[in-house]
Amino acid sequence: MKLRLAPLAAVLMPLLLAACVGGGSPKANVAYYDLSAEPVNASVSTGTALRTLDVVPSTWLSGNAMYYRLAYADSNRRESFVNSRWSAQPAELISTRLQRSLLSASQGSVPFCRLRVDLDDLSQVFDSERSSRLVLEARATLYGVQQRVLARRTLAISQPAGADAQSGVAASGALTAELARELHVWVQRECVQPVAAAKAQ
User: Fold this and answer.
1) What is the CA radius of gyration of the chain?
2) In the structure, how many helices (H) and strands (E) does the chain have?
């Protein structure tokens, strides 16, 4: 029995050794991206009465994959770019951008509102092989004193992009700037402190 297995072992051993030292096909390099820079005229002029701001991702956005959909083929199918990733979770990158825009300036009074943004979608939607849109969908909830819900709203924002992942990254700055502007106007309108609570401070 041993004599019969010896020739087979002699053939397999070099193949196993080649696999161990990396004889397989080399892996492609993966590029990691931050959000692109905001447009020059995109800064929010004043801050808001926000005490805290949190961006919470949906389960499928808890990693750093960059997702896309082929709307012209099957819009219900979600795929991820093989060689492109966000540098962190999208919710983390967006949260940093929003905090810088909405929490940076003082309103002259003690901030009392809390904003929660539930990130439902951030993906690049291809309407054709050469044209796409970077799409963000979210739900925002504004809390006042004693965690009372002041207002809720949904957001659906998109920016035109091109034929690859890099074009989606390039659109991310304008996308988050538009998100910050919409939230700023909304918070300024809805974050109204009750008279009784104001006197109690």
Assistant:
1) 25
2) 4, 7
Q: pTM higher than 0.85 for the full model?
A: no
CATH topology of domain 48-200: Rossmann fold (3.40.50)
Domain boundaries, the chain: 48-200
Task: For the chain, 201 residues long, give each residue's pLDDT as a single digit of tens.
Answer: 444 544 544 444 444 434 444 444 456 799 999 999 988 776 665 667 799 999 999 999 999 999 999 999 998 999 999 999 999 999 999 999 999 989 865 555 667 899 999 999 999 999 999 999 999 999 999 999 888 999 999 999 999 999 999 999 999 999 999 999 999 999 999 998 765 544 444
Cα separation, 63 vs 86, whole angstroms: 9
- How many Å separate Cα 66 from the centre of its chain? 9
Alpha helices by DSSP H, listed for 103-194, are 165-190
Alpha helices in 112-200 (DSSP H): 165-190, 195-200
